[in-house]
TrEMBL record:
InterPro entries: Glutathione-S-Trfase_C-like (IPR010987), Glutathione-S-Trfase_C_sf (IPR036282), Glutathione_S-Trfase (IPR040079), Glutathione_S-Trfase_N (IPR004045), GST_C (IPR004046), Thioredoxin-like_sf (IPR036249). The lineage of its organism: Bacteria, Pseudomonadati, Pseudomonadota, Betaproteobacteria, Neisseriales. Pfam families: GST_C, GST_N_2. Residues 1-81 form the GST N-terminal domain. PROSITE patterns: GST_CTER, GST_NTER. It comes from Chromobacterium vaccinii. This is Glutathione S-transferase. Residues 86-205 form the GST C-terminal domain.
Length: 205
């Protein structure tokens, strides 16, 4: 049985659970992370030395990093609709996934911890303002690239899963936001998917 280690309200765990639902995979999920079992536990570190959720165990395969897990699952199960086999088409999906992890997520990190989690160590007004400004800049990039379908046109892919959880975080974090009509319409399309309803919208943890 596929094992997924991580609390279900984590943004990165939700990506993986959403992917499993889209593919139709059975799995066992184990609570690890903030508020449950610590990721510094040697049992967890043996599976993921980066000490971050989620971790995946699939037989002899162990894997960490949520976007890598999503790619692995789609590729293993031949879901070329989610992750194309053609290198050029696949690269178009993966560039959005890399942008989400490398550019979008770091932009919102400080503001999210300050404004949504109310974390006491995130109280610097200047850093909050810088994070909000960076977040708005990255979301404007997404807004400029979206059409009337999915991130890559008519086909729903892994890019939409990883972007979807980040758009939800944008919408739920309390601060003044610019109007992003294409992004908001895109999110409404995502919300209608059964897999999003099961795993995409559990919160902003």
């Amino acid at each position: 049985m596929l094992r997924i280690l991580g609390r279900s309200n984590s943004i990165n765990v939700r990506k993986v659970l959403w992917t499993c639902h889209e593919i139709g995979l059975d799995y066992e999920r184990e609570d690890w992370g903030r508020g449950v079992r610590p990721v510094a536990d040697p049992e967890f570190l043996a599976l993921n030395p980066f000490s971050m959720i989620p971790a995946l165990v699939d037989g002899e395969v162990t894997l960490s990093e949520s976007n890598a897990i999503c790619r692995y699952l789609a590729a293993k199960h031949g879901r070329h609709d989610l992750l194309p086999a053609d290198p050029a088409a696949r690269a178009q999906i993966e560039r959005w996934m890399d942008w989400q992890a490398a550019d979008l997520n770091p932009a919102w990190s400080y503001a999210f911890h300050a404004l949504s989690r109310n974390s006491p160590e995130y109280r610097d007004p200047a850093r909050i303002a810088d994070s909000v400004a960076a977040w708005k800049k990255q979301m404007a990039v997404l807004e400029s690239q979206l059409g009337e379908g999915w991130a890559r046109g008519d086909a729903f892919t892994l890019a939409d899963i990883v972007l979807g959880v980040s758009v939800q975080r944008w919408l739920l974090t309390p601060f003044d936001k610019p109007a992003l009509p294409k992004t908001e319409a895109y999110f409404e399309r995502l919300r209608r998917r059964p897999a999003y309803q099961a795993h995409g919208g559990e919160g902003v943890a």
